[in-house]
Amino acid sequence: MSKRPTIIDVAKAAGVSKSTVSLVLQNSSSVKEETRALVHQAIKDTRYVYNRAAANLRGAGAGLVGLIINDLRNPYYTELAVSVQMKLAERGFATSIGNSDEDPALQEQLIASMIEHGVSALMIAPAYGGDVAPFKDIQQAGIPTIQVLRSTGFDTASFPLFSMDYDAGGILATEHLLENWGNNVAFVGGIETHDITIERKSGYLRKMGEAGLDPVSFHGKANRRFGYETALKITRDRPDIKGIVTFNDLVALGMLAGFAQAGVKVGSDIGIVGFDDIEEASQCFPQLSSVRCDVKTFGQQTADVLLNWVEENKQPKAQVRYPVDLVVRASSSKT
After folding, report:
1. Neighbours of 186 (CB within 10 A)
2. Helix axes 18-25, 33-46, angle to 10 degrees
3. 144 upstream amide cis, omega within 30 of 0
4. Is 61 within 8 Å of 26 (Cβ atoms)?
């Protein structure tokens, strides 16, 4: 007796992903007509029989939005997830949240799973690395998808990018430090080749260039440990540095601890400005100056845009940047 054909056999015959076949079987309106026709022909050719009763037990994905975050341990992205989830719930949608942990293979798995479960839309803060295959699956399935806060270079016409004006934030932070702490200002944190690091550093480089000053950078993981270790390194090797713009607040918080251990008084001996203005920035000692990115408002408004795309077919702009501002606190106010 020959083996009973499976959904994988149908996908191979149609030249599409398993997730796309699942959407067709669920009669999802998100699949393009030409793709739907290919799948139906493959079903006939393979003599595949769809067990609708079993599928119903697994549940449908109507009213479900997938949210994939690159690092949910970062409070900045946690606040984004909360604000998006609350707005989706307000409009009657459930949220499926996945943490890719900066792993493109895990991100691909999460995307495939969410497509298979028939999500109505996707919002993704993408991990770096990997290939475009998962995004091609999204495109083939016709699922409205917005990239948020960071981009991996995918076509923004197909996958609109909603983010912050990082360049302006870097300018504000650097101007403040140059005016109050002199010309020796450094940038600390972030993987040098990542687009988001390039964006967050761009304003710093612009202001240093305009002032005729040489930029100084210390690149690495955007976490507390790197900030802590770099503070000790600067104390030891570059005591001439008097102002620091960090990639994010986590790096800055690590630097506060490192300088404290080294006996350097932040706010008196050196000025530090973080990036994001997470809640902890106003609760640490000394309180941390930071480029404020209002991620709560950002998350709510971007969720609205995504649902308007789903419900009213209102295609978003290819790229949207939300404004930022500088919150000056004790870490750079030169007390």
Report:
1. 22
2. 90
3. no
4. yes
Side-chain-side CA neighbours of 253 within 13 Å: the count stands at 18
Per-residue pLDDT of the chain (335 residues; tens, 9 = 90+): 346 677 888 889 999 988 888 888 877 778 889 999 999 999 888 877 665 544 543 444 458 999 999 999 999 999 999 999 999 999 889 999 999 999 999 999 999 889 888 898 999 999 988 778 888 888 888 899 999 998 877 777 789 999 999 999 999 999 999 999 999 999 999 999 999 999 999 999 999 999 999 999 999 999 999 999 999 999 999 999 999 999 999 999 999 999 999 999 999 999 999 999 999 999 999 999 999 999 999 999 999 999 999 988 899 999 999 999 999 999 999 76
Domains and CATH numbers, the chain: 7-50 (1.10.260.40), 64-164+295-321 (3.40.50.2300), 166-294+326-332 (3.40.50.2300)
Neighbours of 224 (CB within 10 A): 18
Q: Are strands 185-188 and 121-124 parallel, antiparallel or unpaired?
A: unpaired
Query: Can you give 77-126 as a three-state secondary structure string?
Result: HHHHHHHHHHHHHHCCCEEEEEECCCCHHHHHHHHHHHHHCCCCEEEECC
Question: DSSP 3-state helix, strand, coil percentages of the chain (rounded to 5)?
Answer: 45, 15, 35
Tokens representing residue 95 in the block: 């949220």
Global pTM value: 0.81
Residue 112, token pair as written in the block? 């495939």
